[in-house]
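pasting for the record
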Amino acid sequence: MDYLNQLISKWMPSDSPRVAVDSHPRLSGIMDTVNSTLAHGPETRLPPEFYDKKGRDIIEKIGVEEWFSGYQESTEYRALGIGALMGDIVSRMVGSVEKSGNDGLLKVGGEDGELGRGRGGEKYIKFGMSGCHDTTLASVLSSLGAFEEEKWPPYTSHIALELFRKSDWTDGRTAAGRTSLDEENRVNDAKKEQESWWSWIVGSANPKAQKMPSGPQGMARKSVAELSQQEKNKLAGYYVRVRYNDRPMTIPGCKIPANHLEGDESFCTLEAFKRIIDKFTPGNWKEACVSNLDKPPMPKAIERAGY
């Protein structure tokens, strides 16, 4: 920090003369400004001291530690910060494997804003794309233990969470049997669509209106610990890969031989990936936010991410 103050403190305001994590502007704000000017061209540039390589490296290192080290050290931090999103992603994956239609469960969308499946009520989703902030990307990776020694995500950064099935894998059903089951699921889904998700939430004048399910549908929202052996068998042969800016990332807990595709640790078994996410998926996010308020913000012992 002394190096940064020697470098750029002369441009700090009089009421906050020293550069600090919580100065005004904050150190992260200075970093954002520097990165923004680099992306927009010479007309927006700050004095050259702000682009000093050593100074920028220090700023980014402190910024990453300030914003994301908590995800690497606390299960509760992961649960409150990114657990709900990761739970949704895994729920989609498991719903896709189960072919239950739960791969798009409880997503707001459609022209009328009703609560449906997918953005417009879609099911059996093959590809989903979401926009987010740089902090979201780093939080996801940090919560998986896959952001070690990384710098702040640069502009245009992205994460791909991919679900694969082993090409020679069979789940015990014939191709015809799988096709028949898929069609049965689609027919059942078509019947359910006669009542909107909105009526499940707020009720309906129709006395026959369905009620919102009180718990998970199928396997999608169950933890691995709650699954029967038969249900776990359905996850076999499926793998998850995380790519960050087109680089395959390796999750620590997936390095265990039984937890990845033979010969490639970046392909985590779906069951192992789900076990890791289950540990910080909040059962009730709102309740979790107001719990443990009388306890220290961080645990005494580090609760490592990615296991």
